[in-house]
Amino acid sequence: MFYKPSVKYLGHVAIVRAPLESGESLEKFASQILSSSPRVRTVVVVEGVEGVYRTPRIRSIFGEPLTETFHRENGIAYKLDASSLMFSLGNSFERLRMKRLPERGETVVDMFAGVGQFTIPAAKSKAEKVVSFELNPKAYEYLKQNIKLNKVGDKVEAYCDDCRNSPKYGLKADRVIMGYLHGTINYLPAALKIAKHQAVIHFHELARPNEGWRDLYNLCVAEAKQNGVELQLEGWRVVKTYSRRLWHWVLDLRLSQPLFQPSCDR
Ligand SMILES: C[S@@+](CC[C@H](N)C(=O)[O-])C[C@H]1O[C@@H](n2cnc3c(N)ncnc32)[C@H](O)[C@@H]1O
Fold it and tell me: Against a cut of 0.90, is the pTM above it?
């Protein structure tokens, strides 16, 4: 439930989040946006986001029914259908960080690629190779288009698959991006299997404000221990405020000494 209408812009699409009871006033709000912002052609009203694919729940569309749009940010163009795919504008600094952090020669694995929110910046970095997994065929189609659009096809390998299958691809990652919320911990075992010794894992999740990063760190350390490895916290940051009770955090975790020598190849 959203408490007051708010609006964000993805290219020519205005995305309004509004309280359920807003009724007619919503139409007024949408027509105000359409008349006052020349670049806006379509207003999409979103009630929430649901499911594993994080699909926006659309309530109504005003103006032209053109929901496919281009968003430009940090020298990157993203094409997507704003009525069926999530693109969080609040994550823009994190996208920039993924363009700045990878070092020369790195293999980066993006476990939840979406339309390329982190894959494209990582491919524009000094990294040698980016391997991306995306489960939703629709998001995957846009991911492929965005790889072409941004001319990074020589660096990116993209798979329409569950990232939990990533260990089957024989990958050895220097950096793993886990850009997902609502249960990211369930995917940490796969990330630990593909991460090299000393690799960095960017672990995204929601937690309480202020000290929530501590809860997430303890959760990750416990999961890593179960998998026979140790994690060290290199840093954490608030990506954005998600709701009154939850912040979106990212923890930078470095895989340190294995607790024991695992029998599988690492
Ligand atoms: C909300 S989007 C986030 C995209 C991007 N990582 C970001 O943080 O902006 C999460 C994406 O993960 C995908 N996804 C969910 N479960 C997955 C899985 N098991 N393997 C690969 N992709 C998955 C969803 O389809 C969705 O496109």
Answer: yes
